[in-house]
Write a structure and sequence with these properties.
Length: 380
């Protein structure tokens, strides 16, 4: 089914063509017509499944009919868990909205930066992408009103719940007009999410897209059995001998992310670490250099990786294994996207070996296992 069958205007179809979008993803095929029809949506789909465009495009289409925005009265509110995701979603709105004859003003607001500059940019904003805490600060300062909201989007709702945003989301939702459209997107469907579903959505259309298996078929998986103290040398051996040009490395903690990046730089491998303890400017700089290919290694925690969306990322390395098989699938799903093959490498210590077997069993896929301890790591 082409985009031209989904009810989008000629202007947005041209924008899609300019951005080299050819065929809609499954979630876009289902969500776009339903959103245009005014339905509430509960969309369950992994990052990289095309869900951002599935709500951005119909929202822009709905705004094409016009209607002025009162000063500091926004019409579309998108709530996200992290600054990086706020910037990313806002960029998608700008990319497609920039093609409209009547410009639509969008803004991303989040903590960690000056609130005053965000206040100064709120005039005539129609689409606001926000983290809950900063949004409530702006409301408390009477810098913004939610009384004109027509559409509420909760993006990555599962992560918002894991981060403890329930109380803040309840405060925000209590300030919204009852007559509105609600769009909720999540990677998983949990009991907490069901609670929000019952309290926020009205007779929603449920869209569940299972794309993990398709992605996994494009990903070659390798596991290196290695002692904990040799993980660093083995990582450097892999990066240098396989001539990897771009790789996202996952660690389980902020401290380990910093330590891995530091050691790589000390050994002549350009690397940045990105995590919640970094300044906003530092995080944006790291993402910019990585996406531009100016630095080949980005070391990230699971949460910070939510804002990293690279279409043709060739490699993912698990320096440490995640706690759950779902998190593992989410990590390695950063590669093997857009129908391009990718490679996922896990460094597995003796303490992690049993856990890695469980991950593979739950996933239904087996990684090729290599004895890393047998590799000569002298000099690395």
């Amino acid at each position: 089914m082409p985009f031209s069958n989904l009810g989008l205007s000629v202007t947005l179809l041209k924008a899609l063509a300019d951005q080299k979008y050819t065929q809609p993803y499954p979630i876009q095929q289902q969500a776009i017509p339903a959103i245009l029809g005014g339905k509430d949506i509960l969309g369950i789909a992994q990052t990289g499944s095309g869900k951002t465009a599935s709500f951005v495009l119909p929202i822009l289409q709905q705004l094409l009919d016009g209607g002025s925005t009162k000063k500091r009265h926004i019409r579309i509110l998108v709530l996200v868990p992290t600054r990086e995701l706020a910037i990313q979603v806002n960029d998608v709105f700008k990319t497609f909205g920039g093609h409209l004859l009547q410009p639509v003003k969008t803004l991303a607001v989040y903590g960690g930066v000056s609130i005053n500059s965000q206040k100064n940019n709120l005039d005539q904003v129609e689409i606001l992408v926000a983290t809950p805490g900063r949004l409530l600060e702006l409301i408390s300062d009477k810098a913004i009103s939610l009384s004109a909201i027509k559409t509420l989007v909760l993006d990555e709702a599962d992560k918002m719940l894991n981060l403890g945003f329930q109380d803040e989301m309840k405060q925000v939702i209590s300030l919204l007009p009852k007559n509105r459209q609600n769009l909720l997107f999540s990677a998983t469907l949990s009991e907490d999410l069901n609670s929000i579903n019952r309290n926020v959505l009205r007779d929603p259309m449920v869209i569940k897209v299972e794309e993990e298996e398709k992605n996994l078929d494009l990903i070659k998986q390798f596991g290196y059995l290695i002692s904990e103290e040799k993980k660093g040398p083995l990582l450097r051996y892999i990066l240098k001998t396989q001539k990897i040009k771009q790789v996202l490395i996952f660690t389980s903690s902020v401290h380990r992310a910093d330590a891995v990046a530091l050691k790589l730089n000390q050994n002549g491998i350009d690397a940045f670490a990105i995590h919640s303890k970094k300044s906003q400017a530092g995080r944006e700089e790291a993402l910019h250099f990585f996406k531009a290919g100016k630095v080949k290694v980005l070391v990230a925690t699971d949460l910070m990786a939510r804002g990293i969306d690279i279409k043709y990322l060739p490699y993912v390395i698990n320096y440490e294994l995640p706690r759950s098989p779902k998190d593992y699938i989410h990590r390695i799903g950063r590669t093997g996207r857009a129908e391009s093959p990718g490679e996922a490498i896990s460094l597995v210590s003796p303490d992690e070996e049993h856990h890695f077997k469980i991950i593979q069993k739950k996933m239904g896929k087996r990684a090729t296992m290599i004895d890393g301890n047998a590799i000569n790591l002298k000099g690395f």
